[in-house]
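User: Assemble these into one structure.

Assistant: Restating your components, then the assembled model:
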Amino acid sequence: MMTNKEKYDALYAQFEIKLRGLLPRLPEKYYAISVNYTKHKQGYFIEERTISKVDIRGVPGWYKKVTKIDIERLRIFIDTLVEPKQKDIFLHWTIGNTSAADTLEKVNEGKDCAWQREHLEKRLAELIELYSPREGYIRCSYCRKQRKPEDIIYDTIISPNWKNSGYKSPPRPYCKDSPCAGYDQMGHEG
Ligand SMILES: [Zn+2]
């Protein structure tokens, strides 16, 4: 006699086989732009992500204990699965202690993720240009872009965060040519 959990797992294995049949053959890995200021001086870098698992949005799961209803929902899901959309297909990866997933749509798009490392190099250079700390530049407190001092204005934010100084922040740098200061004020209002 199989337990509900065993039945669910057996059905899930069927789901994986069916899904693989519906998907195009995917490479084993892809590339993504990631950010880590501890490991990389400029923060942004291109990371290689090996696909550990592929699944799709909305696969019925279970909570605490597998019930007959969970199994039935999974069965119906598999039976009605026809042609999953790219935005609903998740490519899972694990690097060190981090596990996450990107959609197939995002990887095919080739902006922040791509099948080829070269496709991300231009975007990487843009991000470094905009956001990496640079000598003689000031970082906007809202959008975090690096700006020349002449493109910066200073503004104060009113928020309970600065209770001890009359609810007013010390002057903070913002982009002069965009509403970053206003957006930051809104962000500090509950
Ligand atoms: Zn800004």
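Residues 140, 142-143, 145, 174-175, 178, 180 surround zinc ion (CB under 6 Å).
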